[in-house]
Q: What sequence folds into this?
């Protein structure tokens, strides 16, 4: 049973470009979470999704950020018009319910 | 609004001694608590958890203590080993949301 997969592992974008981060949850997991870790800071909750539904997006910046978890395929975190402050490690986690979450290896986004 | 706080950003202990990592929370609706361990360039991995109906859970060298009245939990690692050096995140869940603390970087010196 493969773990949570995230790709790409590293992503470099220039200011103003779009960044798309993908997360494939563990088999059988229908809950997906996205977290951001800024340099020297802890994990910050961004969004919690179930298949085709956003359950809690209280941690998402109001502009430029969006997330989806379609019926088929991976969950996508999309950042439009990236700025240098978006540079961070973005972690996805999945769970079969509301307890233990299993994390992916993260995507490190660097905005030049 | 930090609902889960880890007030010590770092902790250094000698190999073989006890490591105690602390975590405080503010939301009384939290009823399930977890500790995660994170190495550089990797995602956090689950370490140990405790339900609010218990005040202690032990797994090998790792023990988590929960004090509900003080809204405080702690992770004890004994004896500490150099391989335990990592960032430890405390997390709390109310079955709807899960929130993480900022993490404590543990360094175990040989």
A:
């Amino acid at each position: 049973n493969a773990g949570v997969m995230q790709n790409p592992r590293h992503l470099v974008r220039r200011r103003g470009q779009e960044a798309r981060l993908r997360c494939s949850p563990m088999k059988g997991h229908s809950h997906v979470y996205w977290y951001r870790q800024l340099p020297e800071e802890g994990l910050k909750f961004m969004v919690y999704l179930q298949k085709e539904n956003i359950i809690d997006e209280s941690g998402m910046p109001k502009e430029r950020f969006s997330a989806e978890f379609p019926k088929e395929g991976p969950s996508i975190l999309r950042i439009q018009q990236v700025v240098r402050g978006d540079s961070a490690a973005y972690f996805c986690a999945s769970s079969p319910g509301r307890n233990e979450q299993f994390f992916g290896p993260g995507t490190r986004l660097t905005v030049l | 609004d930090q609902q889960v706080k880890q007030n010590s950003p770092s902790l250094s202990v000698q190999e073989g001694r006890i490591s105690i990592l602390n975590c405080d929370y503010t939301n009384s609706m939290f009823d399930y608590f977890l500790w995660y361990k994170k190495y550089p360039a990797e995602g956090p991995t689950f370490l140990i958890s405790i339900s609010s109906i218990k005040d202690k859970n032990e797994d090998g060298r790792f023990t988590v203590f929960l004090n509900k009245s003080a809204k405080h939990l702690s992770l004890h690692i004994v004896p500490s080993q150099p391989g335990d050096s990592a960032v430890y995140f405390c997390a709390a869940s109310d079955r709807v949301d899960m929130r993480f603390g900022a993490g404590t970087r543990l360094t175990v010196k040989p």
Summary: The interface with chain B takes residues 4, 6, 33, 35, 41-45, 48, 56, 91, 93, 98-106, 108 of chain A (CB under 8 Å). The mean pLDDT of chain A is 92.
